[in-house]
Amino acid sequence: MIPKKLKYTLAITLLALSTACLATGCKKKHDKIDLSGSQASEGTVQTAPASATIAETESSSNITIEPGIENAQSQGTSAGGSAAALSLSVQTDTYQNGNISIQYPVISDHSVKAGINEYLKENALAILKAWEIDEARDTMNITCKILSATKNRITVRYDGSVMTDGGMHPTAVFYTNTVNLSSGSDIGLSYLADPATLASYVLSDDCTFPEADAETIAAAKTFLKEENPAYYTGLFQNADFPYQGTFPESFSYEYEGSVYFSLPVPHALGDYILAAYTPENK
């Protein structure tokens, strides 16, 4: 993810990271998010135990979806019970144009309301417009992973990189999308956790980063503490889709009882870092 306005910190110096690495080749030319507003999460969500299987459209192999937050709350559901009845069949398709490749989910269950698949694709491809990608010259490769898919909602994670024409280095890409399949609305971070609580958590020593190594975590914590709670509260209020002209700087998803959310950091620290918050443990 393209980082926020970088205030290169002592953390990067301690890591002996070259300041030259902080230059970015990505054409993310959108305006900085107005953190004074807030994004309301739409719709209501009913959690239900379920898992599903993705059949890759570009491969004959089957991929089993990992159990999502829906499963975490009813481990006692027997095989062939309500979980099977509430699961969805999901495939992945790929938008391909030159060196641009973006995977996106396609739900094959006819019970899902019309327009959902088009909306999922629209969100997956929103990064092209938001970052002003030149599809004739730039290179982007993004894969999607369906974390959960039930009659109630689908949660998708996108990972990849973008290299702009003439850029110095590729930039890491991370975003997510959780959609309420009943209402067709996006489920944002404000629905999953209180933004102010998360802001305090990020600035505390309790904040965990499950996908980073110890050295990166130490440097990231120093960098992140340069901002105040108000900044992070605004960041989280504006996290996630819907895309409204400015690509969010933070994305989130819920998985097995924990809330995962991204934070923008300098390129030398990976462009973004993923934090995990488990309410009952904090």
Automatic annotation (TrEMBL):
Q: Map out region (Disordered) in residue numbers.
A: 37-59
Xref: Gene3D superfamilies: Fervidobacterium nodosum Rt17-B1 like
Tell me if Protease is a UniProt keyword of this record: no
The UniProt keywords, alphabetically, are:
Signal
Q: Which PROSITE patterns does the record match to this protein?
A: PROKAR_LIPOPROTEIN (PS51257)
Q: Which superkingdom is the protein from?
A: Bacteria
Keyword Signal assigned: yes
- The UniProt regions of compositional bias labelled Low complexity, in chain numbering, are 47-59
Q: Where is the signal peptide?
A: 1-23
- Where composition is biased (Polar residues), the residues are 37-46
Provide the protein name: DUF3298 domain-containing protein
- Please give the organism: Ventrimonas faecis
Biological classification of the source: Bacteria, Bacillati, Bacillota, Clostridia, Lachnospirales
